[in-house]
Specification:
Number of strands: 6
Radius of gyration: 19 Å
CATH class: Alpha Beta
CATH superfamily: Protein of unknown function DUF1054
CATH topology: BirA Bifunctional Protein, domain 2
Structural class: alpha+beta
Strand order of the largest sheet: 1-2-3-4-6-5
Helix content: 40-55%
Largest sheet: 6 strands, antiparallel
Length: 223
């Protein structure tokens, strides 16, 4: 898909998400499906495909885009509203594993955010991560994350409250051991940022800042 096929997210994109949040019903969605197709689905698909090409050039690895479904999985949820009121997209290496790093984009009526990393490692992936942070690679990761935070990024909240078994209580990378996945996020100023003409360039600039984390996790996932 050519870059010219992505013409941007628009005020109509945000208007649809606001409307759906206000009236999250099958009836409202059906009545506004044409708006969904034109203002949400089409630009999201174009953005995902164009960004996949840009990220391939950035990483040297072919990227597989995924647009998360607007229909919510209600099987195990007490909240029975049928639709997600956001756009979430991820890009992962072609032929990758569950532990491969992802670039991420999120847009809702409350946020426009970019991320990179892994939400939760597999059991072998978590073991590899903990082994890495226990040594010199942990020093590298701390410096890397500190540099990203200094540029306005934030780190995913840790999943654990207690230090995992086998990890020394006095280890200098204690905070890293509390993570079962590692992801760093860069929040744009507001949802309206997604409608700016330079959103593709802005996203790539921030993904470039997050690239060292992508490489760190990619090396882990190859082991």
């Amino acid at each position: 898909m050519a870059a010219t096929d992505f013409t941007g997210f628009t005020d109509e994109t945000l208007a649809f998400l606001r409307g759906l949040k206000t009236d999250n019903t099958k009836e409202w969605f059906a009545a506004n499906k044409a708006s969904y197709e034109a203002a949400v689905k089409k630009p999201a698909q174009a953005f995902a495909q164009v960004m996949a090409g840009e990220l391939e050039r950035l990483t040297g690895v072919a990227q597989k885009p995924k647009i998360f479904r607007i229909n919510r999985d209600l099987r195990f949820s007490k909240d029975k509203t049928p639709y997600n009121t956001h756009i979430h997209i991820s890009w992962t290496p072609m032929g990758g594993t569950a532990d491969s790093p992802a670039f991420m984009f999120g847009l809702s009526t409350e946020y426009c955010t970019l991320g990179c990393g892994v939400f939760e490692f597999s059991k072998p992936g978590l073991a590899a991560y903990r082994s890495a942070i226990a040594g010199a690679d942990g020093d590298d990761l701390v410096r890397m994350i500190d540099g990203m935070v200094a540029q306005g990024c934030r780190v995913q909240e840790p999943a654990l409250k207690r230090v995992p078994a086998g990890f020394p209580d006095d280890h200098p990378h204690l905070n890293l051991s509390l993570h079962k996945g590692i992801a760093v996020w860069r929040d744009l100023e507001n949802p309206q940022a997604a409608t700016s003409p330079d959103i593709m360039t802005r996203c790539l600039d921030h993904f470039t800042i997050l690239l060292p984390l992508w490489r760190f996790v990619a090396i882990l996932s190859d082991h």
